[in-house]
Amino acid sequence: MESKKGVLAVISGFSGVGKGTAVKELLKKYPYALSVSATTRSPRPGEVPGVSYHYITKEEFEKRIEENDFFEWARYVDNYYGTPKSFVMEKLEAGQDVILEIEAEGAFKVRSQYPQAMLIFMVPPSMEELRRRLVGRGTETPETVAKRLKKAAEEELDKAKLYDFLVINDELEACVEELHSVIHSRKGIKPVETDLLVNLEEEAKKLEL
């Protein structure tokens, strides 16, 4: 009998919505594999090879581009970054579910190469709450907070409509359980069946972004 393939769950969301924290807790609680990006830059203090990134040479990266071994890749400030396809496919073939935390543009590239990928977009309970979280991080200037909120309202909400499911990150533990449930049941809030995104758009207008 053929073994069951794992599920590739691609998780995106607004900056500041808490997707990184939610994914970290999901991985602590359940046996998912996390897709780790590859990069040609050097490790920074505290980063762990194979956990933070797969660190490879520019030559190896470009060779793997030619071999089509990235779901998506980009170049920033003389360094390459990409999502290795071979690692993900190896885990999926072994029956393990894989989590990929990535922005919308990369998510759609993954979907174009692996149509079975499940796209999940994480949203805040309200735009005001998103603003509160961004301010609460203490790492953003008021101008940066405004810019991130504007991007969420004008760009990311439209992209969220193209995802398979929405998950609300209101309370962390509940969000983690909802993520796990959606991945395993393929059931949840579908963008086309809810007014949630419309309500967030209306809220954004009231914030006068």
Please tag this protein with its features.
single chain; 209 residues; 2 domains; Guanylate Kinase phosphate binding domain; alpha/beta; globular; Rossmann fold; five-stranded parallel beta sheet
Quick recap of the structure?
By secondary structure, this protein is an alpha/beta fold.
Head-to-tail CA distance between termini: 56 Å
Percent of residues in helical segments? 40-55%
Looking at the overall shape, the CATH architecture of the largest domain is: 3-Layer(aba) Sandwich
Strand portion: 15-25%
The helix tally amounts to 8
The computed structural class is alpha/beta
Order of helices and strands: EHEEEHEEHEHEHHEHH
**CATH topology call of the largest domain:** Rossmann fold
What does the overall shape look like?
A: globular
Q: Strand sequence of the main sheet, in spatial order?
A: 2-7-1-8-9
CATH superfamily of the largest domain: P-loop containing nucleotide triphosphate hydrolases
